[in-house]
Design brief:
By secondary structure, this protein is an alpha/beta fold. 43% of the residues lie in helices and 18% in strands. Strand 6, helix 6 and strand 7 form a beta-alpha-beta unit. It is globular, with a radius of gyration of 26 Å.
């Protein structure tokens, strides 16, 4: 017969044999779950404003916040919006007006921060006259054709430029040329007297003899934004906050040492080779939502153009999240 001590030893060994595999499972599974990153598919265009997103990935800021940010590049806003509506994106970069239109059309989006806000020390958009043009002042634009893309931030900015100088919207003739490279080519070839372009195409046009007549430096307006689908944000309440913390770290890194990210900017955006060295990376705004005034101004313009019926509440457009 076994002694009580032997019985206890056998039971103890048996217990260890049974519980040890279970212990291993418990130790492994929670660790994996805790370290599985939140995957976000983010639709972007090849423009300067998206640089902080690329830097956030490159420097590991999103990974540090347990976010696997997958950038999905598109060549046009139309392609990006189609992917968003098909459910293939969790978030996107776009202009303020386009985002308001998508939300108004039923897309479950919320703006989490401004990507670019006009800055008095730099320009991002400008109205440029053709090389050799004799137009040197805004009042000389009366009746002249200006190449734009309608129902976009480009047309919105043109109207804002004119209004800021007390000129009516019909002071110029708006000519639809949606594709920016074609708009630039026609301007440089003298086939259109003026065009509204973003940087760095403005800088490129100037190297070819064009002149910037009006720009966005004194507008004080949010122009482009970052937005997340509300479903993943609602399912993970801290997701937007972690996203913004990583994005804010990237903005601080760029603003602190912009030249460090010139190569990344060139690789990921439309910086033309001839202006690679002279183009200056802009100062990116601190992480914050577009103001109610900016949102209201965008909606008022859309309603005036017949693209929106009634204004949406500010809370329906933005997704508030404080950086932890």
């Amino acid at each position: 017969m076994t002694t009580n001590k032997e019985d206890l030893n056998m039971k103890s060994n048996l217990t260890r044999l049974i519980l040890w595999p279970l212990f291993l499972v418990i130790m492994i599974l929670p660790g994996d779950a805790a370290h599985s990153a939140d995957a976000l598919r983010f639709g972007v265009l090849p423009v300067v404003d998206t640089l902080p997103l690329w830097v956030g990935i490159e420097e590991g800021y999103f990974a540090a916040e347990n976010i696997e940010l997958k950038m999905v590049p598109f060549q046009s806003a139309l392609e990006r919006d189609a992917a968003l509506q098909a459910g293939r994106l969790d978030g996107y970069f776009g202009d303020l007006l386009n985002t308001v239109l998508l939300i108004n059309a039923g897309q479950s989006l919320g703006i989490v921060c401004t990507a670019y806000h006009s800055h008095p020390g730099q320009r991002m958009f400008a109205l440029v006259t053709a090389p050799g043009s004799e137009i040197t002042a805004p009042d000389q634009l009366k009746g002249q054709a200006v190449a734009i893309s309608r129902a976009t931030v480009i047309e919105y900015l043109l109207d804002r430029f004119l209004a800021a100088r007390s000129l009516p919207e019909d002071w110029v003739v708006k000519q639809e040329i949606k594709k920016m490279p074609i708009r630039l080519q026609m301007l440089l070839a003298g086939k259109i007297p003026a065009a509204l372009l973003p940087e760095p195409l403005v800088t490129l046009a100037e190297t070819k003899g064009a002149k910037a007549l009006l720009d966005d430096r004194d507008l004080d307006a949010s122009l482009t934004v970052l937005a997340l689908k509300r479903e993943p944000a609602d399912a993970r309440p801290d997701l937007a906050a972690r996203f913004l913390k990583a994005y804010g770290a990237a903005v601080a890194a760029i603003n602190g040492a912009p030249e460090k990210y010139k190569a990344l900017l060139t690789a990921k955006t439309r910086v033309p080779k001839p202006v690679e060295n002279q183009y200056q990376i802009p100062v990116f705004p601190e992480v914050k939502l577009p103001s109610p005034a900016d949102v209201n101004a965008a909606q008022a313009w859309l309603i005036k153009r017949g693209m929106q019926q009634t204004p949406l509440a500010y809370e329906k457009i933005v997704l508030s999240a404080k950086t932890p």
